[in-house]
Design a protein that fits this description.
The chain is of the alpha+beta class and 334 residues long. The chain has helices at 22-29, 49-68, 108-121, 156-170, 183-187, 189-196, 206-221, 259-266, 271-274, 279-294, 298-315, 320-332, and strands at residues 3-4, 71-73, 87-94, 99-105, 129-133, 138-142, 181-182, 227-229, 238-240, 246-248, 254-256. The strands form 3 sheets. The protein has a 6-stranded mixed sheet, with helices on both faces. The longest helix is centred in the first third of the chain and has 20 residues, at 49-68. The chain starts with a strand and ends with a helix.
Length: 334
């Protein structure tokens, strides 16, 4: 069970109950075991005022966590498997010798969604949350060992079966009350695209948008009911582990039909298992395996795939061409 902070929140934004003056708190907390080292990937947009201010606060934030949870941070995770942009991720060891990972998050919304998704997961199929602090926007997570991403495994067929089994563990019935974005709310981006371009679809081909709108209407009409979704379950977010063979990390946290969670994996192509593989053959084989493992109709798997790629093109119009190419590939193997 996750542990929540008790008593005054040790936060650079001020304690929760106002009992400790900020200046007094900083003098007490700012003694880090290892100085914060910010990777270059996190400073690419540091000209943004909010981003710059958050980066400047990072040492204080980490120091607060060090004292709050009695841990010693190490060097940040910047190896080939980890790419930090909006979150600062650092392994640490607690005073009892427990290995943990500290995740300090820039966005309040992203923090809230990941926290809720992890809490609702019941630690089934995903990394365990050990503690959190809303003021610090920080999670303390279990250290996943060996922690090798599925992207590093060479057998795409086996990888697809592994991913499907992780998905099944994550998909728990959604509670009536929750704070996560729904798939229906995300699909509304297609309508917003038309509003943005005065009834048109901008750079995204109108025919694809119209097909996606019709497809989503049919898919939602036959939905088996809303479940908790990971929201970004690709090869790099599934790690080899000891508590379970494989665990998911970094959930975006959404609620909706199971089909939505298939898409990030279906179109992802890590070089270790996909180099030299024809795209159509790859997508067709994955659709067959996912349909078999998940007890779904193959056409339904592919329709969720291409329709969601069109949706993503509508949400990120500056990158629309790549998403429409993938949508075309998926539609061609139906």
């Amino acid at each position: 069970m996750a542990v929540r902070s008790q008593g005054p929140s040790l936060s650079p934004f001020g304690p929760t109950d106002g009992s400790v003056p900020l200046s007094v708190y900083f003098k007490r907390a700012y003694t880090m075991a290892i100085p914060v080292r910010i990777p270059e990937s996190m400073t690419e947009h540091s000209n943004n005022k909010e981003k710059k201010a958050w980066l400047e606060r990072l040492p204080e934030l980490v120091a607060c966590c060090e004292q709050l949870w009695d841990l010693r941070p190490a060097e940040p995770l910047i190896d080939e498997f980890v790419w930090m942009k909006a979150n600062y991720i650092v392994p640490a060891v607690r005073s009892d010798g427990t290995e943990v990972v500290l995740k300090v998050m820039e966005s309040p919304q992203t923090f809230a969604c990941e926290l809720e998704a992890l809490e609702l997961s019941g630690n089934e199929g995903c990394v365990e949350i050990l503690a959190s602090d809303r003021k610090l926007q920080t999670l303390m997570l279990e250290r996943v060992r060996p922690g090798i991403p599925l992207a590093q495994q060479p057998d795409d067929e086996q990888n697809t079966r592994i991913a499907a089994r992780v998905m099944q563990k994550l998909w728990r019935p959604a509670p009536a009350e929750h704070g996560l974005q729904t798939v229906e709310e995300q699909i509304a981006s297609l309508a917003r695209l038309r509003q943005r371009f005065d009834g048109g679809t901008g750079p995204v081909p109108e025919g694809w948008v119209a097909r996606a709108e019709e497809a989503f209407e049919e898919l939602l009409a036959t939905s088996q009911g809303p479940v908790i979704l990971h929201g970004d379950l690709h090869h790099w977010n599934i790690l080899s582990a000891e508590r379970e063979p494989w665990l998911a990390i970094d959930p975006h946290g959404k609620v909706g039909d199971r089909g939505y969670d298939i898409v990030s994996y279906l179109s992802n192509k890590p070089s270790r298992s996909c180099d030299g593989t024809d795209d159509k053959r790859l997508m067709s084989r994955r659709a067959d395996i996912l349909a078999e493992e998940l007890g779904m109709i193959r056409e339904w798997v592919l329709t969720w795939g291409w329709a969601t790629d069109v949706l993503t093109a509508a949400m990120y119009t500056d990158e629309w061409e790549g998403h429409i190419r993938r949508a075309n590939t998926l539609a061609s193997v139906m």
